[in-house]
Design a protein that fits this description.
Layout (H helix, E strand, L loop, with lengths): L8 H34 L3 H17 L1 H11 L1 H19 L2 H4 L3 H19 L2 H12 L2 H12 L1 H20 L2 H21 L11 H9 L9 H6 L5 H9 L1 H30 L5 H7 L1 H23 L4 H16 L11 H22 L1 H7 L5 H13 L1 H16 L3 H21 L11 H4 L10
Length: 455
Amino acid sequence: MTVKNSSHVRVWILMLILSLSVIAYADRSILSIAGGAIKDEFGLSPLQLGFVLSAFSWAYVLGQIPGGLFLDRFGTKKVYGVTLVLWSLSTLAMGFVGEFATGITSALVIMFTLRFALGLIEAPSFPANARIAIMWFPKAERGRASSLFASSQYFAVGIFSPLSGWLVSEFGWPWPFFVLGVIGIVAFCAWLWYMQEPRQHRGVTPHELNYIVEGGGLIDIDSAVQRKDKSRLSRETFHKLLTNRMLWCAYIGQYCTIALSYFFITWFPVYLVQARGMDILHAGFATVAPALFGFAGGISGGIISDYLIRTGWSVSWARKTPYIVGMLMAATLIAAAVANSNFWVIAIMSFAFYGKGIAAGAGTWAIISDTAPKEAVGLAGAIFNCVGNIAGIVTPIIFGYLVALTGGYSVGLVFVGAHCVVAAACFLFIMGPIVRVGGETPEDEVGYQLPQRAR
């Protein structure tokens, strides 16, 4: 389908939520960059620093379902805007801990509270991104849209980790928090100015609006009128979201992809230093290649999935096939355990994270966008992200236990790689057809049937 004389507001909306997602990931990750200097200034033990580092993940998981309910009740613009300014203030406040802490105990309490608040406040951000993808993009473009904001973690690593390291070394550990807090407040102003529902946006032409609607975009899910008339979410809706086999396969798929992400940002650098003999500087640079390949894979996954839909594949197989292939590619990271040089370790990990990127770009948030009940898009995304981010708590602990138990990293690598095989098997053998919960298929929403050969 081509669009003549059309605006491209949806592209700018996508760039906006990509920017917000990068800021969100940077806010949650800069503590690991500044952690060494914070530990030295306040005299924290490794256990105490770990306690502070864990605060975000616990709160982020706990906040998912309440955040999703808020999104479905009050709408994306309002909830995303309020949480954006609050999490930016929380980040900014971290830089002032030294001004108020009077000792180790008070520093721990203040930092844990602020990081816990950050996790709780950021919880609705990715479910909100999924709502925006449903609202602004036809189904044949949702894969690419979802893959971009799902790949924001790689932008955050590539852009803000070097910047944060430089700020800490030149000006002190509070400065990354100051800079990112201010950037978030500026982004809040941009959000208020530009974000609108498709029907109300001043820049949208009738051509673009029709293109979104005819392609299956649910442009009215955030409208005040619709929310006013909509009944409260029922027990039946919760039951559907918690018992649907297809959705549970998607939840498990998200858990498995996030398990790989947390292995990468927690234990992979440690593995390079302790098992492969790299120094910290070279280990830091070595993580860049897998991150770049992961980003490239994420973009590729969305493009491949959308291309398959345009060429006649069913939505089910256009989403599932890249996910299955990508996760099987990611499983090759197990081979790093027997690699005989650091070059091959990085090459294997880069290939594996390219596959993981393909899977995440095609088969995680895009599937939730295609299947969530229309009355509970935010809640469905929240449950999906809640289950997925439990991996952020479990994976580092289990991996560390396996390293301690075996005295090496090989079993830990097998543990991480096994996630890939389990997820691929769920999508291939258990998930079944991808349909919107409530009965209609994604194809039905757009008013035409795909060719029989692709069903």
